[in-house]
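[User] Could I get a sequence and structure tokens?

[Assistant]
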Amino acid sequence: MARDYYGLLGVSKGAGDTEIKRAYRKLARELHPDVNPDEEAQARFKEVSAAYEVLSDPEKRRIVDMGGDPLESAGAGGGFSGFGGLGDVFEAFFGGGTTSRGPIGRVRPGSDSLLRMRLDLEECATGVTKQVTVDTAVLCDLCHGKGTHGNSTPVVCDTCHGRGEVQTVQRSLLGQVMTSRPCPVCGGVGEVIPDPCNRCAGDGRVRARREISVKIPAGVGEGMRVRLAAQGEVGPGGGPAGDLYVEVHEKPHDVFVRDGDDLHCTISVPMVDAALGTSVSVDAILDGPTEITIGAGTQPGSVTTLRGHGMPHLRSGVRGDLHAHIDVVVPSRLDHDDIELLRTFKERSRDTAQVRTSQSTANTNGGGLFSRLRETFTGR
């Protein structure tokens, strides 16, 4: 049966791209091996990543909506991939097996490869070029993809006589049924190599490690992928290489929490400074030391926003905002003089303690940083 990719991400079939991406990011934060080393969590992370890969691709998602599974082997079920072998059933009962599919060809395109790269917040903000080591199939440098030794050439398969398939006749309740299967000798190619290359054993490709340069643009974020054309696996018989995808995983930052193109941080301000006003220097990601003004009478939970001091947008370069969440710190240890000063201040102050409703308290304080981020990422 086809896998339930929507169920793996916990979204409905009508979910939009934004909802699917949000669901994947939420699960990735819980299940990523760097966060959760449990083997069961790692297995779920692989399933969730596969589901996001499928549902974020319009063509693969269309196959899922039709009841198929785009990640199943293309050979399963003949021309009805993901339908549990219906192609063979049709051939057996309606004579489809008598129609020759023909040889599949020895030279075929290669598959795509995936490489994961961990970047810190600064690298995501500025962009970076890195040298990475990849292990893929490359063109055999001895036979240059031919698969043969020296000047020898492939010959027609004696078993299937070049058709790439063999036919068998079976008796059933419906009488004699003829079915076709790939040739077990040539593997469906229709020809064999009697004198194969000593290095690649006739495959036309070998596995090798190589260094390539990967340019990561400014503004990338968690789960985004950079495509490097024709840097993936070389195909059988020296066929054209697939693509290499570099998937970005963002390391947690000590100061800032990222929400799209916006950055959030928490500033602890002593009670006196919050009352009188002050300024604090923050080492912003792209701007260096940046002054943040704390106005007189600042309340706990207040947010000071610096427009255009956040992360650059991936395509436009327009920057998000920097949000400083103010945490007013009340002193816990006071000497005699401090106590007397506070008592004098209390006598002069007209404010008194009072009980407020939960709604008015929420409106006054505005909620903390992580409660707001929780609402952003979980919708609660």
